[in-house]
Amino acid sequence: MSDDSAPHRYQQVKRKLLEAIARREYRPARPFITQREVCERFGVSTTTAVRALNELVAEGVLVRKQGRGTFVAETPPARPGGGGSIACVIHGQGPMMAGVISGVESVCANLGLQLVLFDSKGSLAVQDQALRRALDSGVRGVVLYAVQGTADSTALAELRRAGIPIVLVDRYLPTLATDAVVADHFAVGHELTNHLIGLGHERMALLWDETDCSSVRDRLSGHLQALREHGIAERPDLTVLLAHQQLERTERIARLRAMLEHRAPPTVLIGCDGYIVATAAADLGQLGVAVPGQVELAGMDDFGPLDILPLTVAAARLPAEPMGREGVHLLAERIDGSAGGDPRRIVLPITIQTRDAAGAYLQVVRGDIGA
User: How far apart are CA 209 and CA 354, in angstroms?
Assistant: First the structure.
C-alpha cells in the first residue's frame, strides 16, 4: 500500500502501533519495532515511519534510550495538563449541545488540552466516521454524546481496542461498560410526574423523539414508578415508546386528535424535550385545541428552539454544562491513570421548574402560539 493513496498514512500506522501496544505485543523491557520494520510491515516510506514513531515519542508513549533503541514507556504519558488533544463527538445541535460543549471547552482550556469537535448529525454512520477520524488524528481520549445504536458501533470497538479512554455524556450503553456522566433521567420522569399528579393530572401522554437510548428508558421508568406510587394505572397507549416527533405532520396531528377524542383523554402532554413541546403546541393550534384550557403541556427537558417554560405547566432542567465539565475531568483521570480500574457512572441532579417561575405564560390559539 503506497503513501500516495493515503495522505494521512502515518496516522494510520500510529494507530496500529498504539493498538499493538494496548494488546501488550510490545513490553517496556524489549526493544520496540524499528523504523525499517515499520516500513516493511505497513508498506510505507521511511518518512511516514519516522513521523509515526516520532509522534509516539513526543507523546510519551515511546522512549528512546541511547545505544539501546526505542522502548514502550514504563510510565503512562504526562497528565492531560501537559498538552495533547481530545475529541468531543456530539449528537446534533441546539441549546443542550451548546451547554455540553461549553463545559467541555472550559475544562480543556484549564488543562491545556486541544479540543477537536465533531457533529454526528444523529447518524451512527457519521458518528463512526467521526470516531475513526479522531482515532487517526491521535487524540488522547473521547467525550461522546452517543446516537441511538451506538452499542453496535464498530468504530467505538476500535477505540476501545486501541486503549483510547471514552466518556459518554447524557446517556450510557446498558450493554457496554463505559464511563458516563449523565443527568438523573429517572428523576426527570419521577419528579415531573409527581408534580403533575399534585396538580390533579392523572392521565398523561408521553411524546418521544428518540426511543432507543438510556435517557428515554430511565425517564419512562421514573414516570411509571411515580404512577405506581400514587396508585394510578398505566395507560400503555399514552406511554408507548413511539418516535412521535419523527412522524409526518398529518400523522402527528391525527395521533393527537385520536388521543384527545378518547373517552378518557390525557389532560397533559409531556414532550421529551423543548422541540417536541414546541411542535405539539403548533399541532394543537392547528387542531384548535386551547393550551392551557383543554390540555396542558409539560417538558422532560427545557432545551428547544425557544423558552418553553411560559408554554408549559412544568419542565425539567438538565445540567448540560456540568455534564461537559465532569465528562472531561473524568476523561483526564482516565488518561493519566488516576481514575482507577472500574468504569464509573456519575449522575448529576436535575431541577423541576414551574410556570410560576416564568413570570408569564403563553397560550396556544388556533393556527399559532400567542401571548
Answer: 23
